[in-house]
Automatic annotation (TrEMBL):
GO terms for biological process: isocitrate metabolic process; lysine biosynthetic process via aminoadipic acid; tricarboxylic acid cycle. This is Isocitrate/isopropylmalate dehydrogenase. GO terms for cellular component: mitochondrion. InterPro entries: IsoCit/isopropylmalate_DH_CS, IsoPropMal-DH-like_dom. SUPFAM superfamilies: Isocitrate/Isopropylmalate dehydrogenase-like. It comes from the Eukaryota.
Amino acid sequence: ATTTMSPLKIGLIPADGIGKEVIPAAQKLLESLPNGPKFEFVQLDAGFEYFKKTGTALPQATIDTLKSECQGALFGAVSSPSHKVAGYSSPIVALRKHLDLYANVRPVVSVPSPAFPNQRELDMLIIRENTECLYIKSERQEIDTATGLKVAYADRKISEYASKRVGTMAFNMALSRQKLREQKPMNQRFWKNNPRVTIVHKSNVMSITDGLWRETVRAVKENNSEQYGSVDMEEQLVDSMVYRMFREPETFDVVVAPNLYGDIISDGAAALVGSLGVVPSANVGDTFVMGEPVHGSAPDIAGKGIANPIAAIRSAALLLEHLGHPEHASKLYDAVNAVLADGQTLTPDLGGISTTDQVVDAILKKL
Ligand code: ATP
Ligand code: MG
């Protein structure tokens, strides 16, 4: 079939370390989708290495191109220096702000594979508020007059505006996941209940900030009972959230959390389904989506050609899903899962001996 649709324009920002290896891998798979959408890729600069060369971590040209020309982007990974470097701030944080990517979305799904023996069965989606909480970076240090010693403070921001829009996304995604489960029996493997949104907070301690968060997200359903009536809503204190996630991860569907709690539980959840090398994420706004593997730049293995490309490839699938191509996303997920199920072609982080390129080729064959 011929298509008259204009190509999807996607910005590619490999940035640092293994980002330079896994982003080309993901690009190759997007280009190889059978009867897939037409893509136009633009290579864009950013990152700590770029900062060391030029003094800026995120050139204005990258922001402008993404804003004015692209529908989505794929971001590799950025090295975070362990100590403060004058003039440097994370380009990923800045990009989220410039493009108003207010939610970080992380599907955490178990896939049968000899690489993950004794894996728990789960299929959850973590939605992390991405613009506020302690990440507003309002910190200060003073000398405590009573002791003469240093004391440091941080402000935490929770707004009704940000909580409401991310809460709304959570209920909408609960409904769309339910729809997908109905269409595709494979997706019904674990979840047989009503769609469910779990609201994570700690309002027993932080009654004003977490209290506002909890109340605002609850109100999304309470004020739209017609739309969200079929979605169950529950609450979970963040500490018991972690406990329950390790004890009974199969009891979660969509989980929505403020920025910092979301950061912590999503790394914990990644540990339940194998390695950092397989977990994708997407930064989602109302008009732009940016896929981003959960792992960092992995300086210990960068340049060796053995980085696991699966997290980046799944991030590309997530990007497709959010750009309105769930059927192609689904094909890409299936091809990746088939390679994992085989267990024949795996990178060293999953106990295999294959290279990045060999894994890409194996996934291409399944496609
Ligand atoms: P950064 O500062 O960029 O976050 P990091 O040192 O924290 O760097 P991560 O990328 O977070 O490194 O990775 C942590 C560990 O997991 C490293 O040992 C790394 O090699 C491994 N790892 C991460 N991603 C992958 C991948 N895609 N393939 C293989 N191993 C990976
Ligand atoms: Mg890291």
